[in-house]
Amino acid sequence: MKGKHLAIRKMNEIQKNIDGWEGKDIGQCCNEFIMEGTLTRVGAKHERHIFLFDGLMICCKSNHGPPRLPGASSAAEYRLKEKFFMRKVQINDKDDKEGEYRHAFEIILKDGNSVVFAAKSAEEKSGWMAALISLQYRSTLERMLDSAMLQEDKEQTVRLPGAELYRFAQPDSEQNVVFEDSVQSKSGIPIVKAGTVLKLIERLTFHMYADPNFVRTFLTTYRSFCKPQELLDLLMERFEIPEPRPSEADQMEGGEQPISAELKRFRKEFVQPVQLRVLNVCRHWVEHHFYDFERDAHLLRRLEEFIASVRGKAMRKWVESITKIIQRKKQVQVSVASHSITFQNAPPPFEWHICKPGGSEAFDLMTLHPIEVGRQLTLLESDFYRAVQPSELVGSVWTKEDKEIHSPNLLRMIRHTTNLTLWLEKCIVETENLEERVAVVSRIIEILQVFQELNNFNGVLEVVSAMNSSPVYRLDHTFEQIPSRQRKILEEAHELSEDHYKKYLAKLRSINPPCVPFFGIYLTNILKTEEGNPDFLRRHGKDLINFSKRRKVAEITGEIQQYQNQPYCLRVEGDIRKFFENLNPMEDMSEKDFADHLFNKSLEIEPRNARSLPRFVKRYTCPLKSPGIRPTSARPGTMRHPTPLQNEPRKISYSRIPDSEAEGGAVSAPNSPRTPLTPPPASAASSSTDVGSVFDSPQAPSSPFHSRSSSVSSMVSFSRASEDVQVPPPVPPRRRPESAPAESSPSKMMSQLDSPPAVPPRQPTWPPPPL
What we know:
The protein is an alpha+beta fold. The strands form 3 sheets. The chain has an 8-stranded mixed sheet with strand order 1-5-4-3-2-8-7-6. The protein is elongated, with a radius of gyration of 41 Å. It has 27 helices and 14 strands. It has 3 domains: 2-147, PH-domain like (Roll); 162-334, Son of sevenless (SoS) protein, Chain S, domain 1, CATH 1.20.870; 367-517 and 563-621 and 642-658 and 667-728, Orthogonal Bundle (Son of Sevenless (SoS) protein, Chain S, domain 2), CATH 1.10.840.10. Helices cover 43% and strands 10% of the residues. Strand 11 and strand 12 form a beta hairpin.
């Protein structure tokens, strides 16, 4: 600071000594005085006194006359002739020639003009040229110098305490850490492939750079190799950094204490960055993974004590931030959970059909409005989906013995999906009357349309799973009477699961939240990653934690989380929600007994190879006609007709399952396909009883709407090419007689729009072809 004041004083003195100075002061455009001397201006043959600054070159002549400007000092020694800004000129050396000035150099101006100056000797010229060239290339030279100094600093690393004092100071080797061949594309940070726990903690809080991706992945997956209490112990140990012992040279010079400059550098470049990054990890931990502390009050108490013990001005903001987050999380934990969310638009009103508010004892698939069934199931499944935490997925903990402790929210969603799928199957096969059963299937397809409108892919695939189950799959007489429009909707929904869910994934990436993704595909991908990659990598006789595997799992959980933030603009209807929360289709039956019951019931209502079905008494006393899926108070965007997934013609065929079993003896139900989220049994994920389980293969079971055996009776193929033959063309609207009363009821008009003309029953092929 003192040298800067001296330089400013020097420049002010020079400016006062120059008569005719105009423009900014020298101190405003220059920071340093370089040199001065006398040069001859070639051409004018006059001597000029030159003042050279880091940003300016001033040419003057001796002042012998009166002041040129009013107010100027008459004692000014020099008079200004010209000045050159150094950033706007180039310096060019001139060779000596006979008959011309010697020791000359040229100043080329920006406009192309030039001025030539000559020194009195070669030594003077060398001094001027050195100063001018240095100023011209100063920025480049400074960058080169900074780079060289940085490289030198890298080579002279900060001396750390020994590994016997600080376990995290152990040098990197192939026995404790392995890196990927590539680096992060934008930052160039190396990617950890595997390492010991100590090395992972070191990289988590590395002093040379911050790695947010590593922090996010580590906190999501660390429970698979480290307990929360152990992580807190390691972070506290990492924070307490002892000072390095002095080297032998230091001990000879200054005794047992390291020299102050090296110690200062150690604290600035190592201690402070490490401690700040430890606090940063703690902040991310409590912000995004507070469930660790909700489950362990002792862990939270220890963290609070550690944060309270942190001292230092640089740490104060971090400590305050972590403390505020903890207090906020505690308040949310204590307060009653509120489902009231403010939306830009008001949620649509509830839709009611036969059952009205308060009539929960009569709630059923056919008495509730299909729109409200779809809405309430979507809200319920959205809440289940959004409640799943990443820790419930890492390590496939939902398949382990202690799954109830580690994956409560995920298991709640899996059980709901299983119960709903089985309930839909039960509603279909326990409806004995054919007309009623057709109405039930049609109503389920309407609910599927509501799921499609609300982007509830989990609900869509629940319906598809129910339709693909063994008891429902074989009901050809029922599906024959389903309108072709609804059959097409069902076929398009099934196509979502084909080709490893290719269409589903494309659809998911194209829509805007809110949505409920199909959770089964995430579980499948996580299970494959967990089982297909080892937990540890063997290097030089040491087992290193396979962090690359954890990174892959974290990418899947990150995709799950990106759909957990946006809620639906819908209201919860308490009675309907409670009805679906308490679904128990199996009642007291075992899984096998229930599967046998459904299949036996399916054979009872539609016997194998039957030309005509047995007659059954109607089950429902209420009207079977659907209210449709158009809201009574429609507003833009409330319920659109779902956009078809594709417009390509698709062949849809229906047929019976071949009767390959003996007619006599007890009927045994085949293994029923599991629902999309059914977990594998505890014995093994590849058990043979898990037919159609999502954990066996991401490929969905073949659709009953694609192909059935061609050697069975009553086969009918539906396709766009043959629809003209099997389905009559739409009948033009009849003219109402003039004497007929005008029908102006909106509900009647709406019901006409929602109800397509009935498809004529197909003609059975008889006798059946030989098997």
